[in-house]
Specification:
515 residues; BirA Bifunctional Protein, domain 2; Herpes Virus-1; Rossmann fold; 3 domains; five-stranded mixed sheet; 18 helices; tRNA-synt_gly; aminoacyl-trna synthetase; nucleotide-binding; Anticodon-bd_dom_sf; Gly_tRNA_ligase_bac
Length: 515
């Protein structure tokens, strides 16, 4: 755990030092669980959003995108169940006065069991070498089997208790597991209570006439209330999808782990409208599609896993998370949910408006079912950033810090250096920047020795460095250096655009999904 904590602290520190993420209102000592995306962070976030949007909307003929308002009529949230059911189980420690999500305390306990399993696997792998059979070891090693059974039993009990809203049993589980307050070590807990996560606000010029509103806790409802408008104006035929990205707001009890859990965050969601009875087929299809999208970015498949829900939300008949191996363990990155017809049927009831689809082939009307894919953009940012940050030992014994972002997502694609600040080299470097900036985000850098500039760009995540030297004056060639391999090539200036484009072109990366 100490190594995990150190790795995570390094991620947070690097994000600030290289202009990715700042604490919001830092000069006023910050605001808890609220962050600002800095110059490089804004670019990386935009690139992730674009990568999702192109894969989800542009490459699917039957999926369109919208941008619904953050403010919605308050009855929306009554119909969706958020007013009555959008709660987290809260528990306080009487000694430390700290507040926690009861379910997270239990899940963190299970995460420790999973860490023990990983340590046992690592030890066995070192012991047996090439002969090691991981699957057999997980299935037969008594200690590992015991850890797995305990973890499964705990999560099943937690899921059932939350589903039945048996908060007394959730507290009993915490006490039986001997879970202590992470801050004080105290085990003196209050009863578990439900806590609604929505932020309330007002709409109106005067207190007397103001309407009570909520900041939206999810973007999905903006899609559902616009479903019929989109279907009719777009002449959409089932199955079809509506996608959206945008801000959502939740008054998290325990907002922590940097940008993993924030009070103001951004979602990328798609609701896929289907014929009732086909939901399990589409649910499995979208699980596969979304995992392909994640793997297209080139991270090791071992960093991902599916986790099927024991406790289903009030609207779902099936739900699974794509979990990612963050520096603090496997946690939810994206959810795929079969939402049945709950949302549309409920909005139909509360609004008094028909939200049915007329199927011209079967000559029948019905309320569509929905399969949802929902990913947190901020969590995706953290996944990409944390997994890309690496410390490498070089052949000469020195080390370098390198941010190996997928080139398609990197904020700056290339940095252009004049070897020295004279002899016409800066002018040629500026010409190259002026030409490349029409196609890529590029940077000019002339400060410090070239070696230091390389290291600075490595740490910032820039895939290419281009050096202009005295030979450039003679033959219009430059040195281009690749971030990941540190390989250097001598190429003509006129070839730069093609070399960079080959590595950063979104089409080439997204083709991995369909190939």
């Amino acid at each position: 755990m100490a190594k995990q904590d150190d790795d995570f602290r390094r991620v947070i520190s690097h994000a600030k030092e290289y202009g990715y993420v700042f604490q919001s209102s830092e000069i006023y000592d910050g605001l808890s669980a609220v962050y600002d995306y800095a110059q490089n962070g804004a670019e990386l976030k935009k690139n992730i959003r674009d990568y999702w949007w192109k894969a989800m909307v542009q490459l699917n003929e039957n999926i369109v995108g919208i941008d619904a308002a953050i403010f919605m009529h308050p009855t929306t949230w009554k119909a969706s169940g958020h007013v009555d059911a959008f709660n987290d189980p809260l528990i306080d420690n009487k000694d430390s006065k700290k507040r926690y999500r009861a379910d997270v305390l239990v899940e963190d306990y299970v995460a420790k069991l999973e860490n023990k399993i990983e340590k046992e696997v690592a030890k066995a792998a070192r012991r047996f070498g090439d002969k090691f059979d991981k699957a057999q070891f997980l299935a037969t090693n008594p200690r590992v089997v015991d850890y797995q059974e305990r973890a499964t039993t705990i999560l099943k009990r937690l899921g059932k208790s939350l589903e039945k809203e048996d908060l007394e049993d959730v507290k009993k589980l915490i006490e039986e597991l001997d879970i202590a307050c992470p801050m004080s070590g105290s085990k003196n807990w209050t009863d578990v209570k439900q806590f609604n996560l929505m932020f309330g606000t007002k709409l109106g010029a005067s207190a007397g006439s103001a309407m009570d509103l909520y900041l939206r806790p999810e973007t999905a409802q903006g899609i559902f209330v616009n479903y019929l408008n989109v279907q009719k104006t777009g002449r959409m035929k089932i199955p079809f999808g509506i996608a959206q990205t945008g801000k959502a707001f939740r008054n998290e009890i325990v907002a922590r782990q940097f940008i993993f859990r924030m009070r103001e965050f951004e979602q990328m969601e798609m609701q896929y409208f289907i014929k009732p009875g086909t939901q399990m087929e589409w649910y499995e299809t979208w699980k596969k599609n979304r995992m392909k999208w994640h793997l297209s970015l080139g991270f090791d498949e071992a960093n991902y896993r599916f986790h099927d829900h024991e406790k289903l939300a009030h609207y779902a008949d099936a739900a699974s998370d794509i979990e990612f191996r963050f520096p603090f363990g496997f946690k939810e990155l994206e959810g795929i949910h079969s939402r049945t017809d709950f949302d549309l049927a409920s909005h139909e009831e509360y609004s008094g408006k028909k939200l049915q689809y007329f199927d011209h082939e079967t000559r029948e009307s019905y309320v569509p079912y929905v399969v949802e894919t929902s990913i947190g953009l901020d969590r995706m940012f953290l996944a990409v950033f944390s997994k890309s940050l690496q410390e490498e030992e070089l052949e000469n014994g020195s080390t370098r810090t390198v941010l190996k972002l997928p080139a398609v997502l990197a904020p700056t694609k290339a940095a252009v250096f004049p070897l020295v600040k004279k002899d016409g080299l800066p002018e040629i470097a500026r010409e190259i920047v002026a030409d490349l900036k029409w196609d890529f985000n590029v940077e000019y850098d002339e400060k410090d020795a070239v070696g230091r500039r390389y290291r600075r760009q490595d740490a910032a995540g820039t895939p290419f460095c281009i050096t202009v030297d005295h030979q450039t004056v003679e033959d219009r060639s430059v040195t281009i250096r690749h971030r990941d391999s540190m390989e250097q090539q001598r190429v003509a200036i006129e070839d730069l655009k093609g070399i960079i484009h080959k590595e950063v072109d979104m089409k080439a990366w997204l083709k991995r999904i369909v190939d």
